[in-house]
């Protein structure tokens, strides 16, 4: 999926002719100043290509940051390209170096963002060093503080020349290229800076600003071409959110319909839970649904939803910001809002909407009481109207798509006080003496504790032969169906084992367990803790740096910070059983007991 896709579109770019001119000038012009300018133009071209590659992973597996790499020869010719398919798969730099082969010697690597992964994974940096790269151009530093600058320092310590856009390189073309780097990872940057997912409000309206007739009928305002674009937007999102009115009136499915791969979670936000018992969203054969509501609302209906496998999350005060902060804690990076005007207005007023996609159909329906895309915002003068930033216009079939940002992408490198500075401000804050260490996503400081971390393990099968699994999650999900005398179960094990990423392995295993529970081994509930323990013991035994990391937490409580998994995680308010944290602490004690320095 190219960068020209709706979520990441930017209006400025070099034409192919300009790129060719930059390449030719770079190799042929002998004037020093012209070479300097042309090299900047060439750098901008290749960085923008790296962002296009990075954007290709959107829609496969989510959530994860987007990385792309272009390797060019000394003459500026592209020798190899690669992008990170998903978290836990082979880095873009490794793929690009392999594609370039010997042509990478003394070449330049272009990265849309500084490499960053869980603890101890230096594959990206090592690939560039071993490939003989002399220069690395990076679009932006990693937005997460504990990863920011680490790879840049590592590359420079190996003798590579590293240039960062906006720091070591500047100019109009460079600034435009840097902007494309910000856009392709806007969800990660927003997560780092504002602790809410990157939220996009999408709606379709008639030329006179109506999203439905006065009767409520809304099918179809936009064209099929526009609806296909919406499916694409869904496929790029971690979740799609609607309000109760949309469920009652439209009975949507909210599926991506893109032929497989990642399917966004479906979220219904309803304060009163005045929802129908029959709805397409209660069918979770393809993807799950979460209902968020006010605490205490329609307890019987909550039990009904739970009986159908629908997760219900209660809030003391139901408002968009509280909900988005919760899904931030669940690790979501991007959310697509497809709600009605009332909820849209609340979301805008809460400051959680970052971008708007408005499909305008060349139709007029009129109607004094016909609903509009955004409800009451409390504005009484046109001077109070919210202006979009970086507005883009595109014809999509017969419709016009207008998109723009309601708020700018946050600074990718916010100034965050150091530990010493924080202690000066508040002496009671002593992170070094923390009693609780939380971990969840692989990009967290202790992300290597996650089952999704990219650390392969070798485990024996029933016959005693050892097989390699790409992650603990791959192994754990497959064990649900091991030994079941059914060809579908055996195929499922094979599909999980060959899944490209831990996220895909989890999706396959959970989906099969949900759709065909009879295929799950009969003793699973009694053996799953032991299965996880064996996998974790293997992981932390064969990787010395992970073992050291685990031992370094001695004296601290380890908690998987999943707000929704009440078995393996700690839960939203500490009500979870935290079995993953318990097993890691058990392993820590065992390893410390075996250590010769522990006596």
UniProtKB/TrEMBL annotation:
Residues covered by the CMP/dCMP-type deaminase domain: 41-163
Annotated InterPro entries: CMP_dCMP_dom, Cytidine_deaminase-like, DHFR-like_dom_sf, Eubact_RibD, NADAR, RibD_C, RibDG_C, Riboflavin_Biosynth_HTPR
Domain of life: Eukaryota
GO molecular function: 5-amino-6-(5-phosphoribosylamino)uracil reductase activity; diaminohydroxyphosphoribosylaminopyrimidine deaminase activity; hydrolase activity, hydrolyzing N-glycosyl compounds; NADP binding
Catalysed transformations (reactions): 5-amino-6-(5-phospho-D-ribosylamino)uracil + H2O = 5,6-diaminouracil + D-ribose 5-phosphate; 2,5-diamino-6-hydroxy-4-(5-phosphoribosylamino)-pyrimidine + H2O = 2,5,6-triamino-4-hydroxypyrimidine + D-ribose 5-phosphate; 5-amino-6-(5-phospho-D-ribitylamino)uracil + NADP(+) = 5-amino-6-(5-phospho-D-ribosylamino)uracil + NADPH + H(+)
Protein localization: Plastid, Chloroplast
The EC number(s) this enzyme carries: 1.1.1.193
UniProt cross-references to Pfam families, sorted A to Z: NADAR (PF08719), RibD_C (PF01872)
Enzyme class: oxidoreductase
Family: In the C-terminal section; belongs to the YbiA family.
Protein name according to UniProt: Riboflavin biosynthesis protein PYRR, chloroplastic
């Amino acid at each position: 999926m190219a960068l020209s896709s709706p979520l990441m579109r930017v209006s400025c770019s070099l034409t192919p002719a300009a790129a060719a001119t930059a390449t030719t000038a770079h190799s042929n012009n002998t004037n020093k100043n012209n070479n300097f300018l042309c090299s900047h133009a060439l750098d901008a071209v290749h960085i923008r290509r790296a962002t296009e590659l990075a954007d290709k992973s959107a829609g496969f597996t989510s959530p994860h940051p987007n990385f792309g790499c272009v390797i060019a020869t000394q003459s500026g010719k592209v020798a190899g390209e690669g992008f990170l398919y998903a978290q836990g798969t082979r880095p873009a730099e490794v793929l690009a170096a392999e594609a370039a082969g010997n042509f990478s010697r003394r070449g330049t690597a272009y990265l849309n963002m500084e490499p960053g992964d869980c603890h101890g994974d230096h594959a990206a940096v090592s690939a560039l060093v071993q490939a003989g790269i002399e220069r690395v151009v990076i679009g932006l530093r990693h937005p997460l503080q504990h990863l920011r600058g680490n790879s840049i320092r590592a590359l420079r310590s190996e003798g590579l020349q590293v240039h960062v856009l906006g720091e070591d390189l500047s100019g109009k073309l460079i600034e435009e290229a840097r902007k494309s780097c910000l856009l392709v990872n806007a969800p990660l940057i927003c997560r780092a800076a504002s602790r809410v997912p990157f939220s996009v409000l999408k709606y379709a309206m008639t030329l006179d600003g109506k999203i439905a007739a006065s009767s409520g009928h809304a099918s179809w305002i936009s064209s099929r071409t526009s609806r296909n674009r919406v499916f694409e937007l869904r496929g790029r999102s971690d979740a799609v959110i609607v309000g109760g009115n949309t469920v009652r009136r439209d009975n949507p499915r909210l599926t991506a319909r893109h032929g497989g791969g990642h399917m966004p979670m479906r979220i219904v936000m309803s304060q009163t839970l005045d929802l129908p018992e029959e709805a397409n969203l209660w069918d979770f054969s393809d993807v799950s649904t979460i209902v968020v509501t006010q605490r205490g609302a329609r307890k019987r209906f909550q039990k009904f939803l739970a009986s159908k496998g629908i997760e219900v999350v209660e809030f003391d005060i139901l408002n968009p910001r509280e909900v988005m902060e919760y899904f931030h804690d669940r690790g979501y990076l991007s959310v697509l809002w497809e709600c009605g005007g009332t909820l849209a207005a609340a979301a805008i007023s809460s400051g959680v909407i970052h971008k708007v996609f408005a499909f305008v159909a060349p139709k007029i329906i009129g109607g004094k009481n016909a609903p509009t895309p955004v409800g009451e915002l409390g504005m009484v003068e046109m001077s109070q109207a919210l202006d979009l930033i970086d507005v883009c216009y595109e014809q999509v079939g017969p419709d016009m798509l207008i998109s723009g940002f309601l708020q700018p992408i946050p600074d990718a490198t916010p100034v965050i006080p150091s530990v010493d500075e924080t202690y000066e401000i508040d002496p009671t804050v002593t992170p070094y003496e923390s009693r609780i260490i939380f971990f969840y996503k692989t990009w967290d400081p202790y992300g290597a504790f996650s089952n999704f971390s990219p650390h392969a393990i070798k485990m024996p099968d029933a016959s005693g032969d050892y097989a390699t699994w790409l992650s603990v999650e791959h192994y754990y999900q497959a064990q649900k169906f091991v030994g079941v005398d059914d060809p579908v179960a055996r195929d499922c094990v094979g599909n999980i084992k060959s899944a490209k990423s831990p996220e895909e392995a989890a999706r396959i295993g959970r989906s099969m367990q949900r759709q065909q529970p009879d295929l799950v081994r009969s003793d699973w509930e009694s053996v799953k803790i032991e299965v996880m323990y064996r996998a974790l013991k293997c992981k932390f035994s064969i990787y010395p740096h992970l073992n050291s990391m685990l031992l370094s937490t001695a004296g601290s409580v380890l908690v998987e910070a999943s707000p929704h998994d009440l078995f393996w995680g700690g839960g939203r308010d500490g009500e979870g059983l935290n079995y993953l944290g318990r097993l890691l602490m058990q392993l820590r004690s065992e390893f410390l007991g075996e250590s010769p320095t522990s006596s």
